[in-house]
Specification:
Blueprint lengths: L6 H14 L12 H8 L3 H14 L2 E4 L3 E4 L3 H27 L4 H10 L9
Helix pairs in contact: 1-3, 2-3
Length: about 120
């Protein structure tokens, strides 16, 4: 567990990662709050807070008396969110720095394609 991040956020991120990598498929049952609490040795209320974050996002839904399930379209929703976050955290600052040093979008694309001139033979 990451000391710098709230446990409930880490629980939500772990469930999201399992959905993204296909470990938990859409319409399949997600781990219960109690399972998450026991596995991570945390308070069930903390695990529930992480699960409820995913319910609020539309990633999980509850089947009364059965448990939590992965919502249809959850993987695509998470991919869209991650792509947007990637653009905001990495691409936008990259392009801003490129503009400061006189590189255009095509220059940046060329650098990405060629690995910035670094190859196994030319580190």
């Amino acid at each position: 567990m990451d000391e710098g991040k709230p446990l409930f956020v880490q629980i939500a991120e772990q469930v999201e990662a399992s959905i993204l990598d296909g470990s938990i498929a859409e319409e399949s049952q997600a781990p219960s709050t109690n399972e998450l609490a026991v596995f991570h040795r945390i308070n069930p209320a903390t695990a529930a807070k992480g699960v409820n974050m995913l319910v609020d996002k539309g990633v999980l839904y509850k089947r009364r008396g059965i448990g939590m399930f992965v919502a249809p379209g959850a993987r695509e929703l998470l991919l869209k969110e991650r792509r947007s976050d990637f653009a905001e955290r990495y691409v936008q600052p990259l392009l801003a720095e490129a503009r400061r040093i006189g590189l255009g979008p095509e220059d940046v694309a060329d650098l990405v394609r060629t690995g910035a001139g670094v190859s196994p033979a030319n580190p």
